[in-house]
Design a protein that fits this description.
Blueprint: E1 2-3, E2 9-10, E3 61-66, E4 71-75
Antiparallel strand pairs: 1-2, 3-4
Length: 93
C-alpha cells in the first residue's frame, strides 16, 4: 500500500504519479549543541558508585530438578550491569 500526502491510500498496482517541477535548491542546516552546566553533585553522590541497576530478567526457567539433592537447575539470559548495557560481575540468587 502507498500512502500519499493527499490522504489517499493506494494499492501497490496503482502507485502515485512521479512529481514534476523544479528540484529544490541545495541547502545546509547548522545547529549548535550548546553546553551543559552541572552546578553541584547530588547530595548522596559517591564517585565510582553503581547507581544504575541491572536489567530485569524476563526468561528465568527451571530446566531440571533433583529431588534427592533438593536442588534445581535454572537458566536465564543475563542482563547488562547497567540495564541492558555492560556485563555484570556476579549474580545473586
Amino acid at each position: 500500500m502507498f500512502f500519499t500526502g493527499d490522504g489517499v491510500i493506494r494499492p501497490p498496482w496503482n502507485p502515485p504519479e512521479e512529481p514534476t517541477g523544479e528540484p529544490a535548491p541545495l541547502f545546509t542546516r547548522d545547529l549548535s549543541g550548546g553546553s551543559t552546566n552541572v552546578p553541584a553533585t547530588p547530595p548522596d553522590y559517591v564517585p565510582g558508585e553503581d547507581y544504575i541497576p541491572p536489567g530485569q530478567i524476563i526468561d528465568l526457567k527451571v530446566t531440571d530438578t533433583f529431588y534427592d539433592e533438593a536442588t534445581v537447575t535454572l537458566t536465564w539470559t543475563a542482563t547488562g550491569d547497567d540495564l541492558d548495557y555492560g556485563s555484570g560481575t556476579f549474580m545473586l540468587i
